[in-house]
Amino acid sequence: MVKLKSVFKxxxxxxxxxxxxxxxxxxxxxxxxxxxxxxxxxLVSMISRxxxxxxxxxxxxxxxxxxxxxxxxxxxxxxxxxxxxxxxxLTIRELVSFGRFPYSQGKLTKVDEAKIDEAIDYMELRDMxxxxxDELSGGQRQRAHIAMVIAQDTEYILLDEPLNxxxxxxxxxxxxxxxxxxxEMGKTILLVIHDINFASCYSDHIVALxxxxxxxxxxxxDVIDRCVLKDIYDMDxxxxxxxxxxxxxxx
Amino acid sequence: MGYKMKxxxxxxxxxxxxxxxxxxxxxxxxxxxxxRRLLKLLAxxxxxxxxxxxxxxxxxxxxxRILTPSVLGLxxxxxxxxxxxxxxFGSNMMVLLGGTVNYLIxxxxxxxFSLVLYQFLFKGEKNNIYFLLLVGxxxxxxxxxxxxxxxxxxxxxxxxxxxxxxxxxxxxxxxxLLYISIGIIVLTFIYFMRFYKYLDVLALxxxxxxxxxxxxxxxxxxxxxxxxxxxxVATALIGPITFLGLLxxxxxxxxxxxxxxxxxxxxxxxxxxxxxVGGQFLVExxxxxxxxxxxxxxFIGGLYFIYLLLKENRKW
Lengths: 251, 316
Ligand SMILES: Nc1ncnc2c1ncn2[C@@H]1O[C@H](COP(=O)(O)OP(=O)(O)OP(=O)(O)O)[C@@H](O)[C@H]1O
Ligand SMILES: [Mg+2]
Fold this sequence. Notes:
heterodimer; A: alpha/beta; six-stranded mixed beta sheet; 10 helices; globular; B: mainly alpha; binds adenosine-5'-triphosphate; binds magnesium ion
């Protein structure tokens, strides 16, 4: 379980995250939604230790994230950042191999190789695994980075806008993969996502942020609601139910 | 051609140049000339290796290809520290204690300074490389000028006495410090081995390194200290060569076309040795000292530096 208690973050006196408290249960997909600049990436980065917080507490399974050994944390929680600019001469397979670093410390074992193969197959990258990252399309690169996170094989997975650059087929496929990871392997996934229809169809819980505060959090069906969405986005959004799923029409 | 093959070829070229440097034109009193040449060769190789090694680590932990310890003015600072020590203790003391004490005190000052540098380089969550570069260039020039100024203030007679022992250049290699330098380099290298495995991951950037469980601040602080010690040793042995590190590490990256530090470091070290030994061979035996290799390397390196700045500028 991930627990946030009164988390606070400011950049040059400007409050970016204010008093956010949150509990995320194991074995669920939680989506963070909200307008640009709401503080979603900041929050996710704090949970994954990439940036420091200015107040409050974050614990994962009861352990404070800042007071646990780095290597132990890296086996428990992983993150895909919103932007991934690697300017090294790396192939897809080499990038994915880095995901095993917390376990192998650079010396890959048979088990590591198997996990890497599995992650590459999951993202359908097998036939281009030896191509260099700088020779790929944006979407292919994004899939390579997701494969690296999958290879890291952590209980908790944080993804900041994983559908960036992806076409429809791959978007759906990745969301299905995430669903499988949760249902079959008991992973816990937190993701930042802009497309509320993907959030609506694939997540168990939704946390809506605005101006660094939580506007609404709860089960998906409670958050995908006309009044709530109006509050978050200042837009009138029509919600239609199709085959028991709530689809937002905001065009 | 794979990077293993390339490494072997570089090693072969380096060895050939070393042999050539020692045996070419070897006549006269062998008992005198041979040991001198060997000592000088050893000093040049150690220095070249140390600079290449330190610069590779530095570029990796700062995640850039243009900022090097020398460009930041670290070797000028080393010269300044040394001069200040002579200024305050006087030459008598220095001659009495020998260059070694000055050397060790200077290295300690540099290590303390690296902790200050650390705050500048790594404490902020985002850094502007160009700003650092500018500050580094200004400080480097300042340290250099201030060193000259202090040297003028020192009593000329006294200065003559210490100059030869304290301030090395490639034609005046400080062989007194050779053995202790070897000791320091070996110890530093043994210490470095504990952090070696993190280099490849650190090259992915700070955030990726943290995500993959690298104790980031702990590791980077220690790597920076290693860099500063190596640069101090190199400067003590043959004096500053500003653009050598920049040149050899970039060439190594271009040549090796890999991200693996094992090969990048070996490549850079060997290229550095080739450049220094080969260059020195040409300067001593062919140009008969009409120019110095530092001048040549800084000229080529300087051009390359400008090229890199222009190229990187387009990207950002
Ligand atoms: N390094 C920084 N320095 C100063 N302000 C920052 C920094 N990083 C983020 N901010 C500010 O913090 C706020 C939240 O940023 P954040 O990246 O968390 O937004 P977000 O919800 O992820 O937005 P988006 O949907 O566009 O990705 C923004 O107002 C941003 O300007
Ligand atoms: Mg964001």
